[in-house]
Amino acid sequence: MSTPASNPPPVRKPRAGPVVTVGLAVVDLVFTVPTLPTTPGKSFAQGYQSIVGGIAANAARAIAALGAPARLVTRLGADAHGQMAADVLMAGGVEITPDSQAAIPGTAVSAVCVDATGERMIVNHKQPALFGPPVDATVAVKGARAVMADLRWPDGAGAVLRAADGLPCLLDVDQAPEQGAAALLPLASHLIFGEQALMERFGAPTVADALARAGAALPGADMAVTQGGDGVRWRQADGTMGWVPAFKVPVVDTLGAGDVFHGAAALALAEGVSFTQALRFASAVAALKIGRSSLTGYFPAREDVDNLLEEAICPPQA
User: Fold this and answer.
1) pTM of whole model > 0.70?
2) Hey, which of 29, 77, 114, 143 has its CA 20 to 30 A from 250?
3) How far is C-alpha 183 from the geometric centre of its chain's CA atoms?
4) b/e per residue, 144-158, with b = 16+ CB within 10 A?
5) Helical spans, DSSP H, in 92-170
6) For 160, what's the count of Cα atoms within 13 Å in the CB-facing half-sphere?
7) pLDDT for the residue numbered 98
8) What pLDDT score does 266 carry?
């Protein structure tokens, strides 16, 4: 879709130093099915593959694919899944901090069903002991330009966010059962909510009202809520609110789309663009991501994102 010509692609600063992501890395066991199961019983998959996933891991892979240094702070178990994840991440250009590989068996895993429309159902399991003590946060943020964290490892994320004080710190606020997750919200300069998580935390008649309540509860932070095909609503710390429309693209697979959105937004903030420009850049990255199957291991390249942004500003003439 086209957007006003007054909203050009962001002018970025030269890239130097890593963007740090901290939180979940998992091995996803992905089953492609005609429709998502809705009742107990047996379902038959049309395809299967194990891939590396997780919020922070996917965000780091997206950042690296966009041509920037990415550093991941997570926990991988001492098992075959953990070794596979480490190999894939490093092959994709992601730096893994030394204490990310824990001497605990049992890397986090997810069972994922993806249907013919690209929608997915996820069941995740991680051992609490794996995501226990915090990391050496000083090492984690050394030379960093920005931090992106999820809620799945509150101890680790909290330590890194505190150590990164003064840097752009973006928090993915989704539904999370982990104790201590809510305490992370005041540590971030930028918060991006999933719609359901926003409404549960700040219940209100509308999403806009809930976002306003979130702003009142967390003053000083820029924030947004992702709404899939309906785009992204945002509220800046000064109280101004607006909307970034979604790019209209064919949907093949939504798995990992939110993760790459958060990673791309953190990278854009690290490069010095405004929050609204960062959201638009991240929307373009997510749009390209959902256009291909997650089983291909595809993460959008910078050139493809810039081309999509240019096409949206100057659509082809009929």
Assistant:
1) yes
2) 29
3) 19
4) bbbbbbbbbbbebbb
5) 137-140, 154-163
6) 35
7) 86
8) 98
- The strand order across the sheet containing 47-53 reads 47-53, 26-32, 109-114, 120-125
- Calculate ∠ Cα 84-87-88, nearest 5°: 85
Residues 6+ apart with CB under 8 A from 139: 97, 98
Strand-strand pairing, 190-194 and 169-173: parallel
**The total number of residues written for the chain in this structure:** 318
pLDDT tops 90 at residue 235 = yes
For residue 312, give the H/E element and its range: helix 302-313
Q: What is the pLDDT of residues 42-88, one digit of tens each?
A: 989 999 999 999 999 999 999 999 999 999 999 999 999 999 999 99
Q: What is the mean pLDDT of the chain?
A: 90
Whole-angstrom distance, CA of residue 102 vs CA of residue 77:
5
E-only strand ranges, 66-211: 70-73, 94-96, 109-114, 120-125, 146-149, 169-173, 190-194
Q: DSSP 3-state assignment of 157? A: helix
Inter-residue contact 22 to 140 (CB < 8 Å)? yes
Q: Which pair of tokens denotes residue 179?
A: 């104790």
